[in-house]
Design a protein that fits this description.
233 residues, alpha/beta, Rossmann fold, DNA polymerase, domain 1, 2 domains, 6-stranded parallel beta sheet, 48% helix, disordered N terminus
């Protein structure tokens, strides 16, 4: 009781409590894929940038990254249609998939340190992504993470019929795993993903999040990781 007049003490105490939490304190850990498990976001942005140039829509690579990172492909198409002011040419989707697939096969790698995390986890874990089913499978395969995620621990927007920022994508994944979403830990990096995670009722930690300091504060994220070596097993 003597510490009531010292708010700084309580801030420090709260920080100590938060930092003492580990992945073992949860029923399950749910990972986003792009930018969290695999280093694919720059590849996706470069493929999309090239495809947009094909149809005469000029955007810088930074503009592409800021506009489309974390969005489902279906939502990306809606945003592109809005910028075009009309329908997208038929060649756009097949061209984009060709560019993306080629870059994935040639360049995709897992995020540094993620295999140590996956090997050391003591609770069930899964991947929950806005990618389409086959695209998700290809990413895990090309990045060498296939063996860590059996079919029953892979959740994609195509199969579930819902996409981030809708929290249902995480709620459905937790239900399928037989765990309480409120007892799950989610690792995310994008605004749509963190929106879905926080609204689902789970605890969310940011991994190299594409957010401003104000957005991080608004979401109430209790932990930000800049490297997988910081992940408490």
């Amino acid at each position: 009781m003597l510490c009531i007049g010292f708010p700084g003490f309580f801030c420090l105490l709260e920080e100590i409590v938060v930092m003492s939490v580990t992945s073992a304190d949860f029923q399950a850990v749910l990972f986003d894929c792009d930018g969290v498990l695999v280093d694919s976001e720059s590849i996706a942005n470069r493929a999309l940038h090239r495809t947009l140039q094909d149809i005469g829509l000029e955007m810088t690579l930074d503009e592409v990254a800021n506009t489309f990172t974390g969005q489902s492909f279906a939502h990306c198409l809606l945003l592109i249609e809005k910028r075009l002011g009309g329908p997208i040419p038929d060649i756009f989707v097949p061209n984009n998939r060709t560019y993306f697939r080629t870059l994935l096969q040639d360049e995709l790698v897992s995020m540094p340190g993620i295999e140590r995390v996956l090997s050391g986890l003591k609770v069930p874990f899964a991947v929950v992504t806005n990618s389409q089913y086959q695209e998700m499978n290809n990413k895990l395969k090309y990045a060498g993470l296939d063996a860590y995620f059996p079919a029953e621990r892979r959740f994609d927007t195509e199969t579930l019929g819902v996409a981030k920022p809708d929290p249902a994508i995480y709620q459905l994944a937790a239900k399928s795993l037989g765990v309480d979403i409120h007892q799950c830990l989610i690792l995310e990096d994008s605004f749509p993903g963190i929106t879905a995670g926080t609204r689902s009722g789970a605890t969310v930690w940011g991994y190299r999040p594409h957010l401003t300091a104000d957005e991080i504060a608004d979401f109430g994220l209790t932990r930000i990781l800049t490297d997988w070596s910081e992940f408490p097993l």
